[in-house]
Amino acid sequence: MQSRCRYRHKNSKLRYLYWVFYSLLLMFALDALYVWKIWPNWKTIQTGPVPKSAFIKSYENLKAKQRTLPRLRWYPVKRRSISTHVSRAVVVAEDSRFYSHKGIDVKAISEAMEYNIKNMKFSYGGSTISQQTTKNLFLSSSKNLLRKWHEVLLTVGMENNVSKRRILHLYLNIAEFGRGIYGVEAASRYYWGQSAYSLSPLQAIELAATLPSPKKHNPRTRTKRFLRRVEKIARFMKLSSGNYSYRH
After folding, report:
1. Do the beta carbons of residue 170 and residue 45 sit within 8 Å?
2. DSSP 243
3. Angle, CA of 148, 93 and 129, to the nearest 5°
4. Which of 42, 173, 204, 232 could connect to 85 by a Cys-Cys bridge, CB 3.0–4.6 Å?
5. Cβ(233)–Cβ(92) under 8 Å?
6. Per DSSP, what are the bridge partners of residue 181?
7. d(C-alpha 248, C-alpha 245), whole Å
8. What is the pTM of this model?
9. Residue 113 neighbours by CB under 8 Å, 6+ apart
10. Domain residues of the chain, as ranges?
11. What is the DSSP letter of 79?
12. Phi and psi (nearest 5°) for 73?
């Protein structure tokens, strides 16, 4: 009798393990199918025109439902039409090791985790410019682990198929700089009425300072947090913001 019970218990345990194994296998297969479906043509990403990002498409859909939202501002431009001050400021502010890592900055992630644990809140994620570019282009703003996993896969794919120069160019053209404002050209026209090519070093710093939370902290709102970030980026760039004239 006891041997039968043990046998049944063993069979029940095996069936459970089989169920877990096949469930995980099915989930893996479905996820692989999804990744295959969204996997981009990297040659087009590398050499073609700047594509409309998933975030821009999402805003367009939202705007169609909520007419009171500001109109979409997005004017993708060529790399030579963007001031070098902007490129430098954004790299310094968002991803200082951009040109040395392979898409995932382990050190930045470690530092972010340490900061978050120390302050008991999730403030920084350690995402690189490459990660932010793939997220904006192909994914959503969701913070679940599955989306993060897809972001990592796409980032590795991008880093192996697209040059650093092109990745930065894409990012500068699709990053959000305010409600309905995407890309440095649209931001430059909206905040200063001029092209991204003619921005001064300080204006470039202010654009870079906008990126973490563009709807709340930008050159129009000029919040204390925004101004502190401007000063911080200016120091990192070895510029003295006191040499420039801007209103607090």
Report:
1. yes
2. G
3. 35
4. 204
5. yes
6. 73, 178
7. 10
8. 0.84
9. 126
10. 39-243
11. G
12. -120, 115
